[in-house]
Each structure stands twice: as C-alpha cells, then as structure tokens.
Amino acid sequence: MCRSIKAFVVALIIIAFSVPASTSAQKTGKALKSKTLSTSSLPATLWRKPKDIAARNLFYGPGGKEHLPQGKFTFIKEDDSGSSPKFEIRDEQGIKWKVKLGPEAQSETAATRLVWAAGYFTDETYYLPELRVQGMKPLKRGQRFVSAKGIVQGARLERDHKGEKKIGNWSWFDNPFVGTKELDGLKVMMALINNWDLKTVNNGIYERQGLEQEYLVGDLGASFGKTGNTFTRSRNVLEDYLNSKFIKKVKPQKVDFVLHSRPFFLYAIWVPYYYQRAKMEKIVKDIPRDHAKWIGELLAQLSEQQISDAFRAAGYSPSEVKAFTKKVRERIEELNEL
C-alpha cells in the first residue's frame, strides 16, 4: 500500500475515533437511555384534523400572532444540550423562551410551520433576525452570534408552556399509532423536509391540562438540506435541498422515500450509535401508497402563499423563499401523482 493511501486510511480512522466519542456517540447514548412511551391512561393523540387548512397562518405558525415574542428579554442561563448553541431567556410577562442559534434557527422555524399546517403537534417557534437580551452572559457556544449590548443575531425562540407536563418520549417504531395513516403521514413529512435527525429523544409526549397525551415531534432543525452520514449530510442548505431526491422507489402498494442516515462504516465500532442511525432509514420505507396520497392531498390544500409564509417567517431572502416554496410544491405534487 502506497504512503498516500496509508495516510488517507489513518486519517479516516482518526476522524472516526474522535468525532463520535466527543459528540454524536455520547449524545446517542443519552438518547437511548431516555424515557420512552407513557404509562398514562389519558387518550393519546398524534394528529388533529385542521379545521380549515387553507386558512392556516403559516407566517405566525402554531403559536399565532398573539404569542409573538416581544418586549424586553432577560438572560437566564446557557443550555449545553444538543449540537446547536442555545440559551434561555425570560420576557416581561414571565414567559420562558429557549433560544437556538446557528443554521438550524431558520430551518426549524420553517419546518415547524409545515408540520403544524398538516395537523401535527410541534413546538411554537419564532425567528428573530435580531434579539436584544438584558444581562447577556458570554456563551461557551455561539458567542460569534452575539455582539455588544446583548444583541443576538439570527435567533429561533421556542416558547415554554406552563401547565404542560412532559411524561416521556416516543419511538417511531413503538407507539400507539403504528400502521395508521396519521403516523405514516408524519413519516412522509419528515422525508418531505429532509429531516435526518429522527432520534427518539426528539419526540415528546406531553400531558395537556389532564385531558390527553399529545405526541409531538420536535427539534426539526436538521431539515432543508440533504440527508446522509456525518460527512455528507447538511441542514438549511438550499442548493442541497433542491438537488435532493424525494421518492426512492414506488411499489405496487407501498412507497420508499429517501432518508440516508447510515453512518460511515468505521463508526460501526460504536454499536448503539451505528445501529440507531442505520435504523432511521427504515422509518420512511414501505409507506402504504394510500397513506402517502392522503398526506399529499392534505398538503395540496395549502396555497403557494401559505408555503412561502413559512419560509418568510424563518428570515429567508425573497429568492430563497421562492426556491424553497417551488421545491416543496413539487414534492407535494409527487405525492398526489402516486
């Protein structure tokens, strides 16, 4: 073996042994230990039919205009969870918000609106191009987004809801809705937005006012790029999203959608991490055609303006809004052609 090839192999091994140990593998280990499912006897709900999907306001999203963050904000503490820089703030009404910085701030804001528009539960998020925070402390992560006098650039704010109680996490493979069109429709939504981070820890079960359990899909920031392994995947990259494929294979009764998540082969030495990522690819396989068409027919009721509003709310430029909107509409048309 020549020296250049040996050097290349050694470099790959070093990368494989260093990256997961400090980031992905450790986080995956924590995710695998997270509480899953629920022992509550309350009715479980994954999807609620939109009363009038064609009238839903995708600019303000699930929180509506009335929950739009405004006024003065005060720094609480930094949040070191996940891969994106985050910290918590409180507004003048005493409401807590979790702020996320970096590329996922935009993609998550747009993704939550599209998922909510189809009738699913997700977080109330808003994107602010600029945010002033009183008592802002230096961040261990994301300090480059903060300038003098507590001015923060490109912030996604997620509202904390009082009266909500998180009672667990749910798995795509083990939940009360397996085999239903509602769960399969949500899987198709993940493929439509190219969300490659479908970990159990991102799916929460919340008890709402003691009346029901809502199965929520959150942390949608790993979207609108391309799916792939650690070295090839992306999020919030318009060109990658435009050049990606949506439907992998159409069978007589079922459809396989595209989700590349299997890690680089050297990562196989971290069995839990490799297994979890490889298994994710199965989430969007063997979707019944009638279930895929069902969600397609639902999404087809959204106007071009509504879809554009989801991306406008995320702070994208007019040209980016136009391109993202066109691609989403093309994917909806693909579903309706099945």
Protein architecture, described:
- With 338 residues, this protein is α+β, with helices and mostly antiparallel strands.
- It has one domain (30-336).
- The chain has nine helices and 13 strands.
- It has helices spanning 3-22, 24-32, 104-117, 181-192, 238-242, 271-280, 289-299, 304-312, 318-336, and strands at 44-45, 73-79, 86-91, 96-100, 125-134, 146-147, 151-159, 164-169, 203-208, 212-217, 247-250, 254-257, 287-288.
- The strands form three sheets. Strands 2-3-4-7-5 form a five-stranded mixed barrel.
- A hairpin with a 3-residue loop joins strand 6 and strand 7.
- Helix 3 (104-117) runs antiparallel to helix 8 and helix 4 packs across helix 7.
- The model is unreliable at 1-35 (pLDDT under 50).
Task: Tell me the layout of helices and strands.
Layout: H1 3-22, H2 24-32, E1 44-45, E2 73-79, E3 86-91, E4 96-100, H3 104-117, E5 125-134, E6 146-147, E7 151-159, E8 164-169, H4 181-192, E9 203-208, E10 212-217, H5 238-242, E11 247-250, E12 254-257, H6 271-280, E13 287-288, H7 289-299, H8 304-312, H9 318-336
Parallel strand pairs: 1-10, 2-5
Antiparallel strand pairs: 2-3, 3-4, 4-7, 5-7, 6-7, 8-9, 9-10, 11-12, 12-13
